[in-house]
């Protein structure tokens, strides 16, 4: 089975490959998929992979987007907080502006961020977080509002700065504004889709979409192809609910949502996806397609729970 991650970095793909080797998945034709495709219970054995190990999975990675650093100015007004929602925001900052972040921290500006990688980049600069990092902007907003009191009148004179992607959703900014903070949003970089789909995506069984820009790029790159068989997108697993919404908006077949942006989150989402994907057309690993994905009503969400299903026994006529 071929799994593709929409990232240039191979760190997450390597961690997922290791996890699949340590915790074999039972990849089989699910009961719901059987009913949808009309396969009998007796045929399940021939449509099943059985227990697959990490060696049965090909976990690859290839980015679908490129990023252009933008020219920007750091706000001159006093900053009470700086929120950084991606490690790329720091990576694409010029050195002298990263130094400005350090000076801001030294003068009492507090920092908050999304993701462990972002936290690591801040640590490299010697900047400590004032509140724990979160998996996404919504969670960070909740942590922040629970950890701090409403801004006083004197604090209103100090702004909250949100540097980041030009394509960022306004979830965090809007929530902070509602809470009474003076929010300054600054685009630091711009994501854009690459002109050609990387060859690694040919024959992918599942694509793990790691961002909204990657979702739009995957849909765009495939719709631009003329060969229908080549342009058909594979089922996708989204990292987080916001990316899931972006996948659906782009017209992708969403199979499951990873509740956390790490290897364990993807692993758990894969298990849920295998419950609804139609494996009837698979005869070996690395096949071209996993078949159809169930409708939105059958989508395996990150907070779904497992259900015990009863199996009706059928008499076999001799």
Automatic annotation (TrEMBL):
Record's compositionally biased regions (Polar residues): 288-300
Any one biological process term the GO annotation gives: tetrapyrrole biosynthetic process
Region (Disordered), start-end ranges: 288-318
Domain Tetrapyrrole biosynthesis uroporphyrinogen III synthase: 70-264
Domain of life: Bacteria
Transmembrane segments: none
Comp. bias intervals (Basic and acidic residues): 309-318
GO molecular function, one term: uroporphyrinogen-III synthase activity
Protein name as it appears in the record: Uroporphyrinogen-III synthase
Top-level taxonomy: Bacteria, Bacillati, Actinomycetota, Actinomycetes, Actinomycetales
């Amino acid at each position: 089975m071929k799994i593709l991650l929409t990232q240039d970095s191979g760190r997450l793909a390597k961690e997922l490959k290791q996890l699949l080797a340590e915790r074999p998945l039972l990849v089989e034709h699910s009961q719901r998929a059987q009913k949808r495709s009309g396969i009998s219970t007796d045929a399940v054995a021939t449509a099943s992979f059985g227990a697959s190990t990490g060696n049965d999975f090909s976990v690859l990675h290839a980015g679908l987007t490129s990023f252009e650093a933008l020219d920007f100015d750091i706000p001159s007004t006093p900053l009470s907080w700086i929120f950084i929602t991606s490690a790329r925001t720091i990576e694409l900052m010029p050195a002298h502006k990263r130094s400005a972040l350090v000076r801001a921290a030294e003068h009492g500006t507090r920092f908050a961020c999304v993701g462990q990688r972002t936290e690591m980049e801040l640590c490299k600069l010697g900047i400590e977080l004032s509140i724990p990092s979160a998996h996404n902007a919504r969670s960070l907003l909740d942590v922040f509002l629970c950890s701090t009191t409403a801004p006083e009148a004197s604090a209103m004179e100090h702004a909250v700065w949100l540097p980041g992607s030009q394509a960022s959703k306004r979830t965090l900014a809007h929530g902070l504004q509602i809470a009474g903070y003076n929010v300054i949003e600054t685009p630091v970089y711009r994501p854009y889709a690459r002109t050609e789909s990387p060859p690694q995506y040919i024959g992918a069984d599942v694509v793990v979409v790691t961002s909204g820009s990657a979702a739009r790029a995957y849909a765009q790159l495939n719709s631009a192809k003329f060969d229908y068989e080549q342009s058909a997108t594979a089922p996708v697993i989204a990292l987080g609910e916001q990316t899931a919404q972006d996948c659906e908006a782009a017209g992708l077949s969403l199979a499951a949502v990873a509740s956390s942006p790490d290897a364990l989150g993807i692993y758990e989402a894969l298990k849920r996806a295998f419950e609804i994907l139609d494996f009837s057309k698979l005869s070996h690993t690395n096949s071209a397609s996993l078949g159809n994905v169930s409708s939105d009503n059958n989508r395996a969400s990150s907070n779904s729970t497992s259900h015990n299903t009863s199996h009706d026994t059928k008499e076999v006529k001799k």
